[in-house]
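Researcher: I need the complex structure. Ligand is pyridoxal-5'-phosphate. Inputs:
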Amino acid sequence: MRTTQDEKAIFVTQSSMPPYEEYIEAIKPLWDSHWLTNMGKYHIELENELKRYLDVPELSLMVNGHMALEMTIQAFGFPKGSEVITTPFTFISTTHAIVRNHLQPVFCDVKASDGTMDETKIENLITEKTVAILPVHVYGNVCNVEKIQEIAERYSLKVIYDAAHAFGVKYKGKGIGSYGDASVFSFHATKVYNTIEGGAVAFSQHELYERLYNLKNFGIRGEELVVSVGANAKMNEFAAIMGLCNLRHIHSVLAERKKCAELYKKELEKVKGIHFWTENKYATNNYAYFPILVDEAFPLKRDDLYNCLKQENIHSRKYFYPLTSDQACFKNKYKKISLDVARELSANIIVLPLYAGMDAGDIERIVDIISKKLKRE
Ligand SMILES: *Cc1c(COP(=O)(O)O)cnc(C)c1O
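Model: Output:
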C-alpha cells in the first residue's frame, strides 16, 4: 500500500517563469551596459508596458508591493495619528503599511458575498480624524468602487486600493488600477504575475509620480540635489526584465489558471458543504486564488480539512486567518469594531492550490480527498 509520503507535494502556488533561454537571452545586454538598477532601460520599458497592459494613466514601479503601499500612503502626507478605514481580512502587509506610517487603522467589516470591505459600514466609522479608505480587492474580487468613491468624495477622503491580488482585472471595461486615488499591485513571486519581487502604484495624478519617484530614490533630483526625504524602493533591471518576459506569457498564464479554476468548480459544485463565490459579472477574473468556504453541512471543520489535506502532502492555506486585527502585534490596540462577517469568513475559508501549469490530475486528487470526507459520513 502507498503511504501518503509517496504522494507528490502540492503547494498552494507555484511561481510562473518564462522559458529559461528567454530570460537568459534577455539579461545578456546587462553584461555590456553594466547598468543594473537606478531607473534603467528595462525599468522604463516595463513601466510603459504595464501602463498599457493594466490600462492605467500613470504607473510607478517599486521594489515590492509592501514598499509600494508604504510609499503611496506616505506620498499623501496625512497628519500623524490620522485614521484610515481598512479591512482586517487581508495579508498583514496592508495593516503594517498603515501603522508604519504612524496612522491608525480602523477596521471595517467585510461582505460575506465576496470578502471585500462592506461599503454600507464605512460611513459609521468616519470621524474628524479619518483621512483615507484603504480597501483590498481580496483574491481579485472587486470592491464596490462606485460606492466607496461616493463616500470618499462626500467626506473628502483619499481612496487607496490594495490591488495586490488584482493584476490584470478589468471592471466595467476599465483597468482596476484606474479607480480611486491610487492602486497598489504586488509582483511577488507568489502572485499571478511576478518580477521575482516587485510592485507598482497606479494612479492618475502626475504629481504623485514625482512624489513617489522622490520617495523611492532618496529624494535625489540631481548630482548635488536632494529635494526631499526619501527611502530606497527602486526595482532593479533583473527584476524588470523578468517582468517583461513574464508579461509576454501572461495571456496563457491567465488561461491556464482559468482552466484549473473551472475544473475545481465543476467537481466541487457536487460536494455538499463546500461553497465558492460566484463571479462579478462586471469584472474579469484573474483566478489569483481558489478560496472555498466550508460550512456545517461538511463533516469536517476548516482546520480539520486543512490538516487532512496536509497529511496527503497537499498544502492549502488559511488565507486570511487570523484577521490582521487579531494578530499579536495589533490585538486590542485599535478601535473595537464588530467584525463578525470577517471573523466568520476567516474561520471557514481555505485556499486550494492553483497555478498556471497545474496538472488536472492534481486537481482531481485534491477534489477526491475532499469529496471522500463527505461520503464517510
Ligand atoms: C502580497 C501582498 C502584499 C505585499 O506585496 P509584496 O510584493 O509581497 O511586498 C500586500 N497586500 C496584499 C493583500 C498582498 O497579498
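Model: Summary of the prediction. The domain at 20-248 is CATH 3.40.640.10 (Aspartate Aminotransferase; domain 2).
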